[in-house]
Write a structure and sequence with these properties.
With 264 residues, this protein is of the alpha/beta class. Helix content is 25%, strand content 29%.
């Protein structure tokens, strides 16, 4: 079979908390320097605003916007300009409710959304947002791609790759340095147990509550091997669908997986 390659770039972007204009401008600058062969760029969770702190919400409210707002409009324009897909999350307002909403935007303008299912109650996320009830899965350039957000990665049933429904799992996060060992280990676990590539991207910076984020990000193959190369603080990898399918054929652990019904 002809191998289908997917060239991805993970961007452990530094976020200026609460400064959307600066973050969107920074994204444009970053994308201008991304390797021209790149098919997909993956951004951190809530990259355009940062994750809101209780103090900032009390002072200014939740920095949400509709899907036709500045964040998604800008990302669509940049995806078209640089001819690549862009994935990440933003704070969405929908019928008066707020969501931590994942997006996947193709260079054609086709757009997909899904909301974070597991809200981080220890930071009060469950008091700010409504939770989602489905995981994103899209078909892009012969690849089946799924996506979850930050805290979702701690819940293996939610991430479970049933009957090889996805080839690549994207995980976008604002994961503090103080808990970074858990983040790194969970990325490897999700790749190995699901026999799929995993791309996990974390942000850099210091949030409004004083937590530091060190940008720890990884691209891991279906055997649990880290495969990214680094250039100018960006991580790159060329993923092989042929190698993935060959491994699944030779070592079909997925056939012995437990069946279950997921209720949310």
């Amino acid at each position: 079979m002809k191998d289908s390659r997917l060239n991805i770039c993970v961007v452990p972007m530094e976020i200026s908390w609460g400064d959307k204009d600066n973050n969107l401008s920074r994204l444009d600058s970053i994308l201008s320097g991304v390797h021209p062969a790149t098919d997909l760029v993956v951004l951190p969770e809530t990259f355009s605003t940062g994750f809101p702190s209780p103090a900032s919400v009390k002072e200014s409210g939740i920095p949400g916007e509709e899907t036709g707002g500045g964040t998604i409009t800008t990302v669509k324009r940049l995806a078209r300009r640089y001819n690549l897909a862009i994935a990440g999350s933003f704070i969405a307002v929908d019928n008066g409710k707020y969501y931590n909403r994942a997006f996947f935007i193709e260079p054609t303008g086709d757009t997909y959304f899904a909301d974070k299912a597991h809200l981080f109650s220890m930071a009060g996320e469950d008091e700010l947002f409504d939770k989602g009830c489905r995981r994103m899965t899209v078909r892009y350039r012969s690849w089946n791609i799924s996506m979850v957000i930050c805290y979702d990665i701690r819940f293996p049933i939610w991430c479970r790759n049933r009957n090889n429904e996805y080839d690549l799992l994207l995980i976008v996060a604002n994961w503090p340095k103080v808990r970074i060992d858990a983040w790194n280990k969970l990325l490897y676990a999700r790749a190995i147990e699901n026999q799929a590539y995993v791309a996990g991207v974390n942000c850099r910076g210091i949030d409004l509550s004083g937590f530091e984020y060190d940008g720890s990000s990884k691209i891991i193959d279906f055997k649990g091997k880290e495969i990214a190369s680094q250039s100018d603080d960006l991580l790159y990898a060329s993923l092989s669908l042929e190698k993935l399918e060959s491994f699944r054929t030779k070592f079909p652990a997925w056939k012995d997986a437990d069946d279950f019904i997921l209720r949310k």
